[in-house]
Amino acid sequence: MNLKNLQSRLIMCLLAVVMSSVSLFAQVTTVKHVVVRGETLEDIAKSYNVTKEEIISLNPSAAQFVYVGMELTIPKKEIAGATNTVPSQQNETVPASAQPESATGSTNDSYSSSDMDYDLKWGPIIEIGYGFIKGSDNFTYEATIGANYNITQDAYVGARIGYNSANYFTSVSEIGAYLNATTTVHILRIPLEVGYKFLDSNRKIGIVPFASLGFNIGLSGKRKYKSNIVDMKDDKLKVGGKVGIDGILGARIYLWELTLSGGYHFPFNDEQKKWFGKDAYPMISIGWMY
């Protein structure tokens, strides 16, 4: 046997030893786990004998929170020759009935958005809007902050509180003379809302139609005059404590929790019509919603 053949046989033997050793050590596959009520990331990591960091490395969104029905990719370690092992197939999905029991002692079930036993949660919402009251120089704007309560994974009810205003401009002019008046009403706004989220499978993009009932409480008002022929003092308007009521129908475009919405405001009582006009008016808003 020459030296070259001896070297080749030694290399082949070494490769065989390495391959057999690899098969005897831990191999890593992945399984799918659907989060059930009461589970935390720590519970899930413990039940699969892995660390939180290993789960987060495969599921970056889990670093913030996990919710009921969320599907996680779990690294599953197995030892060749051990009992109750899973075939070494990458990205394998284990049926819900075969997944390990959670910390609560109940097995995981497969959920859909329609029959999910959703864990009720609060989510914040912030919006800034600009409305086009009838008349070229008339407008309203508002800023509100509040929270939504998720009835299901997609349906919610919510309430906000914030500031609103109605702004009008009127002008009377003759040859060589003019009289301008700017009217502003300051309002405390409390909208109550119901809506439904139609989102993609990753829950990042979608549309959210909604309906809202708004209570507008007058705070103060003022009318300012400007003229080149007469000196007129500003008027204070008596609006304090009066309540206007309106309704809104609209929809939000949902992009990674940022929203762009449009809706129509409909006046429901005389006070609302006095401040914002008797006609419905459109409003566009930008915001953030969880």
Provide a short characterization of the protein structure.
With 290 residues, the protein is mainly β. The protein contains 4 helices and 12 strands; from the N terminus they run H-E-H-H-E-E-E-E-E-E-E-E-E-E-H-E. It is elongated.
Describe this structure in words.
With 290 residues, the protein is mainly beta. The protein has helices at 3-24, 41-47, 52-58, 270-276; strands spanning 27-34, 71-78, 122-131, 139-150, 155-174, 177-196, 198-199, 205-227, 235-237, 243-255, 258-267, 281-289. The protein has an eight-stranded antiparallel barrel with strand order 3-4-5-6-8-10-11-12. The chain has a two-stranded antiparallel sheet with strand order 1-2. The longest helix is centred in the first third of the chain and has 22 residues, at 3-24. The relative contact order is 0.11.
Give helix and strand order, one letter per element, not per position. HEHHEEEEEEEEEEHE
Overall pLDDT: 79
Contiguous uncertain segments of 5+ residues: 21-26, 79-119
| Rg value | 32 Å
Distance between the termini: 75 Å
Basic shape: elongated
Brief descriptors of the model:
two-stranded antiparallel sheet; mainly beta; 8-stranded antiparallel β-barrel
Give the arrangement of secondary structure elements.
Elements: H1 3-24, E1 27-34, H2 41-47, H3 52-58, E2 71-78, E3 122-131, E4 139-150, E5 155-174, E6 177-196, E7 198-199, E8 205-227, E9 235-237, E10 243-255, E11 258-267, H4 270-276, E12 281-289
